[in-house]
Amino acid sequence: xxxxxxxxxxxxxxxxxxxxxxxxxxxxxxxxxxxxxxxxxxxxxxxxxxxxxxxxxxxxxxxxxxxxxxxxxxxxxxxxxxxxxxxxxxxxxxxxxxxxxxxxx
Length: 105
What we know:
The protein contains four helices and two strands, in the order αββααα. By secondary structure, it is mostly helical. A hairpin with a 2-residue loop joins strand 1 (37-38) and strand 2 (41-42). Helix 2 crosses helix 3 (65-89). The model has no long low-confidence stretch (mean pLDDT 81).
């Protein structure tokens, strides 16, 4: 799927992306899974589950761009699958304008 194509190839070019990759790396380094930090200062801008999932990916794949982007890519895939499932279960629902276009084609 396109979501995972070249996931680890480009380096971090957006400051926010590097920022959100550094936080789980520090989580792994400190082994404190309840208090995320960025540059050794407390960082609670995102829920801890997000950081913990990214840190788990980094524990499995290493502290790489791929590992930092893996959890958001999985979340996007889950959202896409959920939308498709919603369309399949209720294609005539007026809230599913995208589903109606898909079924007409």
